[in-house]
User: Which sequence fits this backbone?
């Protein structure tokens, strides 16, 4: 055991104490409770930051009870303390926003109590040091979040969304619990650190491979991946702070599970391939549907689906440090996006209209992609010379990202585009490539020592890399050419189907009885 107990272990206790007080005063305008709720989350952020300082000064910290498979523990290593600071910061921002947003609601006090309980469970989850704590914390997150989704329980849409969330989320809990049972039976311990050491020393074995399969299944369910993604697009029936907390933090739970079990997951090529394929397809699917949405929050929800798919792809490629950086960046961006979505329409309406957009032809799009890839290749060579060679997976991910910039370059190279636009789009391509390699180097420097390095590609890995590059490249190329056939009747039909998410959510609706859900939930 470590000699210094991390201060980051304390915020859940404070949050639960205030939550109990809030739940005892569940009604409208519960006095100073709202300020107290905001204050305790700010104090929790301070304790998490103090825990980070402790880590830098004294190293990792752990506390635990019992031994073997029954071990119950928390840990404050570099990954968990990073996530704890992130959750604490997002929690403080959301609770500060909730003070005015929920002011005057009939169940205002209960809302603050449930939000604080959820935050406490998430903080325990991201600092889990054992399988039992990991499973228990994610179950608690699901239970408390489902009550928040039912804040307006008189709405049939809210009841339907909570049912769908419960089915998918707790399905992930069951998968994770089965994985925990198999791992504890195989290795005789529930300590996450000891599990990693034992598996690397003696191999996973059959039960270990099955357990990793269940871990991947749990991650896929908890990140709203294809095809059970529909619940994430409907949780806007809850108050906006709930949507912000869900999309900015809780939805990352699947990625956190994968990070905590990264060394185990990477020992299973089949699990890595599944993550890469399902994550890549979910990213493409979510991004395509997002472009067809007119409602701001629905578009943000589909953006989350796409981002979580991309994060799973990163994990499947073995780019664990980049996956953690993705979680941090997505959390901060999505919290801001949801909390500021109310004024987005007014902001867009006030923008000066730039006039018609230059439509690039086929040859222009082809040249733009070639130019973007040449610029990317040159910058990749430069960074490799300065910072050392990059893995094939990292280079492939950068190529996928640069395909998005190539769309902008195509606009700048169109025949009718002004010279200034051409110059800006080329600069944007160069800046994107430099930013990617800079962030990749930074993430590797910070977390690369505690997370597994990307594996040396074998035939399966090379096949996945080529498949990912070709798939994302074709979709980006088609998007750049879309204005040329946007008015074709077939295009209108495809847009309708995409706008409805290919009707996959309707199948889940039918499975749970549609809107015929009980009011006694």
Assistant:
């Amino acid at each position: 055991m470590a000699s210094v107990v991390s201060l980051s272990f304390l915020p859940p206790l404070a949050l639960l104490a205030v939550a109990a007080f809030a739940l005892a005063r569940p009604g409208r305008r519960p006095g100073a409770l709202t300020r107290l709720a905001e204050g305790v989350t700010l104090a929790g952020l301070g304790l998490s930051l103090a825990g980070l300082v402790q880590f830098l000064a004294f190293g990792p910290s752990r506390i635990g009870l019992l031994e073997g498979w029954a071990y119950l523990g928390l840990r404050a290593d570099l990954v968990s303390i990073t996530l704890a600071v992130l959750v604490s910061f997002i929690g403080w921002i959301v609770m500060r926003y909730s003070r005015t947003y929920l002011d005057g609601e009939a169940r205002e006090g209960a809302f603050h109590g449930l939000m604080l309980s959820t935050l406490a469970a998430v903080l325990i989850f991201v600092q889990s040091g054992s399988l039992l704590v990991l499973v228990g914390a994610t179950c608690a997150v699901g239970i408390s979040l489902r009550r928040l989704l039912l804040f307006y329980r008189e709405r049939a849409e809210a009841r339907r969304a909570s049912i769908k969330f419960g089915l998918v989320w707790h399905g992930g809990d069951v998968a994770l619990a089965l994985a925990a049972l198999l791992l504890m039976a195989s290795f005789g311990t529930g300590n996450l650190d000891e599990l990693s050491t034992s598996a690397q020393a003696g191999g996973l074995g059959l039960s270990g491979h099955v357990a990793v399969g269940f871990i991947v299944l749990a991650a896929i369910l908890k990140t709203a991946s294809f095809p059970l993604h529909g619940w994430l697009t409907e949780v806007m029936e809850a108050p906006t702070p709930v949507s912000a907390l869900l999309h900015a933090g809780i939805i990352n739970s699947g990625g956190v599970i994968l990070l905590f079990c990264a060394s185990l997951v990477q020992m299973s090529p089949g699990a890595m391939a599944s993550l890469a394929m399902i994550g890549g397809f979910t990213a493409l699917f979510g991004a395509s549907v997002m472009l067809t949405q007119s409602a701001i929050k629905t578009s943000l929800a589909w953006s989350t689906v796409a981002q979580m798919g991309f994060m799973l792809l990163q994990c499947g490629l073995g780019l664990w440090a980049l996956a953690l950086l993705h979680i941090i960046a997505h959390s901060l961006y999505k919290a801001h996006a949801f909390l500021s979505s109310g004024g987005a329409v007014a902001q867009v309406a006030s923008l000066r209209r730039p006039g018609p957009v230059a439509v690039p032809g086929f040859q222009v799009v082809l040249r733009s992609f070639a130019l973007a890839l040449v610029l990317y290749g040159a910058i990749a060579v430069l960074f490799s010379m300065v910072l050392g060679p990059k893995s094939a997976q990292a280079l492939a991910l950068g190529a996928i990202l640069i395909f998005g910039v190539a769309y902008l370059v195509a606009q700048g190279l169109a025949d009718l585009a002004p010279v200034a636009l051409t110059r800006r789009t080329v600069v944007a391509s160069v800046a994107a490539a430099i930013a990617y390699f800079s962030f990749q180097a930074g993430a590797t420097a910070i977390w690369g020592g505690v997370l597994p390095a990307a594996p040396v590609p074998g035939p399966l890995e090379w096949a996945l890399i080529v498949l990912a590059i070709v798939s994302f490249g074709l979709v980006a190329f088609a998007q750049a050419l879309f204005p040329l056939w946007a008015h074709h009747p077939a295009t209108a039909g495809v847009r309708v189907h995409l706008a409805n998410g290919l009707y996959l959510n309707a199948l889940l609706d039918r499975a749970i009885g549609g809107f015929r859900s009980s009011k006694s939930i």
Remarks:
- The mean pLDDT is 85.
- The beta strands are 61-65, 72-76.
- The chain is about 70% helix and 0% strand.
- The first strand starts at residue 61 and ends at 65.
